[in-house]
# Entry
Amino acid sequence: MKQHEGSPKDDPRYRVANREALIGVGLVLINFILWYGFAYGFGSKPVEEYSYIWGLPAWFFYSCLLGTGVVIVLVILAVVFLFKEVPFDEEEDQ
Amino acid sequence: MNGEVVIPLIIFLVIIFLIGFYASTHLKSTSNFLQEYFLGSRQLGGFILAMTMIATYGSASSFIGGPGVAYTLGLGWVLLSMTQLATGYFVLSVLGKKFAIMARKIRAVTLIDFLKERYESKGVVILSALSIIIFLFSAMAAQWVGGARLIESLTGLPYTGALFIFAVSVLVYVIIGGFRAVAITDTVQGIVMLGGTLVILIGTIVAGGGVETIVATLATENPDLISPFGADRSLTPLYVSSFWILVGVGVVGLPQVAVRAMSYKSSKGMHRALIIGTVVVGVIMLGMHLTGVFARAVLPGIEVGDTVMPRIALEVLPSWLAGIVLAAPMAAIMSTVDSLLLLVSSAIVKDVYLNYVKPDASDQTIKRFSVGITAVLGVLVFAMAVNPPELLIWLNLFSFGGLEAAFIWPVVMGLYWKRGNASGAMASILVGVGSYIGFNTFMPNAFGMHTVVLPVLLSLISYVGVSLMTVKKHAAVQTAVEWKLWKV
# Structure
């Protein structure tokens, strides 16, 4: 139950929420670096010099296929190991 | 077109209707009509949450427009479209728990409910309700036009007839079922979108003789088709990167997406939705746009980008399967439109009517009024879509970026920065929308970035700057808000 007496403090669930928002920002940064680095790192040279993986240009394979795969794995790891379950209903508050 | 293509579409529509009827049974038995009609009583589980977010976000452009551009520009456009992967996890992790908890504390049903309690200001409520009603109404009408065109091209019916079929299908299940019907149909539509993507991608690769052959054909035609810079080398790294703001992180500010972040049941559901959403959005965006590029090697010389998807489906797949695949863009359009329809209704009923016109309306009145408004809106959009007026086409240009620029900071900073206040939020909305329209008109793609980037920055500066300048004016209200939303 909610307690209105005593010294007020922030809802403890917000610490979890704030941390997870930062994790979301971190994931976007990693995602962007992978996406940008592979695409323009491998893709900026002349097309004749491209190497290919599974028939696709290497820049595309790494940036859009592998990069996407890595981000998905990171999201799963973040959710499983870093995200915490918190109760939403007021009645469950302690 | 032939019957085999049309039958899967009809079956699809029938399933959608049945879901509407199923959801209407919840609506009859609910004790809180508003919560159920506009938010599905906050009962969404992880899978449905993920699918409804993606289906709402993925619209005609993901299935028709986007692949058409990919056909013209090559792999560089697929790279650009992959900036959307972030929407799968970013919205839920940033809005996620904070929004769900705060919304429950104040029993918010709409995004504007939240803004109203957070800023305690009539100005903020009216500005945001107006932005939602104007921009989303035009966005919705534009999608209806797309939906009707699609039916027209698939069935050979005249445009108005096609529009009528589309309008009736959407209106019936939204009106009788509300948010729950929208969310469940979104899920079915999301599954159709996902399945359709995989089938058409595989079909195109097989028809083109394998990835290697296709890529070689493209490189012979124009080497830049397989470079990250686009066929005409127009896609600079800066321009492509700026799409991270428009379709990646900026999506947090779209009301139709944000409202879903307060509709779920438990944090377990949200966690599951994060994973499912990221996987599904990745597969759909990569698959559809890659198909657009590969289609060039199978069916060269298509002039109108929007016809690429229907034509490649009919070319590489047996007609019954093409029908199923073409139900995907249909699903994408319907699932966007249904959410917008409900959101605009909620802005009118909950945010304007109940706040300022008749706060003491009885349950029965609210019920009749909600259903009535949704129906009237539907008829209005239909009338607009029959012959879209210039103003509407103009407004639709700003609906996506304009809403992002308007809402991203009042929502995000409202959740995470206690000192943000009403004056800051109003300044942010006005500057965001105003500068977006201004830049779009006078300086499109300023400094080589998508037009949305600068307005989003300017609205952040306004939010923070004005909030800091008006600390004294809002001191009392801010303390009360902090007590209500933050303290235990």
About this structure: The two ends of chain A are 6 Å apart (CA to CA). Residues 13-43 of chain A form the longest helix (31 residues). Helices of chain A lie at 13-43, 58-82.
